[in-house]
Amino acid sequence: MPIGENSSVGCSSMQRKRAHGRKSFAEIAKECCKIEGIKYYCAIDPDSGCTYIQENFDSGNLVRHFRNKHKTAAEIKGLFPDGNQEKRSRVITKRLVSVDKRTYVEGTIKLVTQHNLPLNCFQWEGLKMLLDPIADAVNIKVSRSNIKVWISAAANKLKSIMAVEMKHKLVSIKLDSASRHGRHVLGINAQYELNGKLVIRTLGMIEVDQRQTAVFLRDKVLETLRVYDLKLDQIFSITVDNGSNMVAAVKKIKSLLNESIAVSTLLFEDDENIPQERDLIEELELEWDARLSLVRCAVHSLQLAIADVFDKADPNLKCITEVVRHLRQIKYKSFVEVQQLALPPLWSPTTRWGGKYKMLSSILKQEAKFVELGTQYSEMCLGKDDWRFIRDYVDATRPLYHCTKVMQADHYPLSQFYIDWLVAIQENFIADTWKRIRSLSPVVSSDEKEHTNAFDFNDKVDDILTKMFGGTFNTSSDNSSTFYNQIRALDTQDRQPHTFNVWKHWVVRKYTHPELHSVAMVVLATPSSQVSVERAFSALAIILSDQRTGLGAETLSNILLVKLNKDLSDKVMSDLYIWNDTITEMNSNN
Fold first, then answer.
1. What's the pTM value of the predicted model, to 2 decimals?
2. Pair (484, 580) in one structural domain
3. Does position 536 have pLDDT exceeding 90, yes or no?
């Protein structure tokens, strides 16, 4: 082969660049230097003030310096391959992290239900960078549809757990409703004793799409009870606010429960022997004989009572409110800062009366500062009538305000609202509650049934005889009931102070007084308010935010059910899926 036939063979890259009319990186680098003798000074960007210097020319180090310290100028001069910035492959150190399928699924469920992230958060670029490597490692696909399936599975598991907890128990129900973004939700809570502790469970946050009549509400409640296999005979009480539809719904539920009893009673009743008027004791007996008690929320009732007394349009209140509102203007900012005046909270017509109390109480605590305010600014002066109104209002409502705060606890039992609960109710009510507890027990011996039935009859007879002839009867026979003796023995015990912990008193008597303990746990677990349902609506406001109004009814209900029964999450996740098995079922909806 002639020597010049393929002269490019063996040529260096520099020679190839020259052949194409391009300068080499070394040539460009030398042009970007100020040369003084054997020294080469960086001059690619004169305005940068760079002091880099080489004693002897080294093109590789110069090019590296230009690329790292003067990237923009290096790009313009063509010091990157193909005119682009040099890209180096990123090396990520592998780390050992302990994560399994259960941990991953539990974490994703909590991001939505506990931390209120939207379902589409798993498509966010930042979150995908964190979660996708873990999902790949544990062989799980995460998507909006999969998350919905997992939350639904968790909600169903919760329902199963709560159904087991409530089996063979008398429970109290709490109802309330609220609206958010034009969507109406019915909240249903259950309250009962479990292993010596009072528990509150959210049975459902049900979206309703029609008028909430008494019949409709009744049907929704019954539908929810069926989900948990709860029989009407297991419902001890239902607590509602004073809404007419809620009260009527509970009465309709009561009528269903008492229907068979009422029919059988009418068959043996002689209308001619029924007196037209009953005294107070007889009326109370009829109330306590009911199988299901309607409890009107004590907090709501107190709010209504106060609203009936204090007029929102009171001229003194309006004048004082205007002063507090104007105090937030820039004109009075310097006075507020110098006097270190705490701005009283403003109340609005949508808030409860407690807002007025907090405003007026704040003013009264800072009376000297507000007097000084009126001295410096005549338009902010409060007159004698205003100050008299403030003092009278605060003095009159202070006990009610503190009472309301106490009543807003998770559980405010009727025993606390009515200190003399056990004195006010009659033994028949307590005894009937005990019989219902025994009837729900899965195992009752024949001796116990005979014993209970015998004293049902004897007690009725003894009550009639006592009413007719007065006096007492001898209970020392062999057939005497320990249970009834224990009830009567309560009268001989010393009265305890109103701060006495009645719940703890009966918890420690679980084995010494098992019958009375069972009744006490049911009675003391009866709520006097539905505050816990109102708190559930606070969670509704967080989940159904302005950006998440498109959540479906079922998904919204499932998210709230998991969120509001947070203490059961560990029980739910332990066997939500067969974690050691394949994950096909969980990925099937991707």
1. 0.64
2. no
3. no
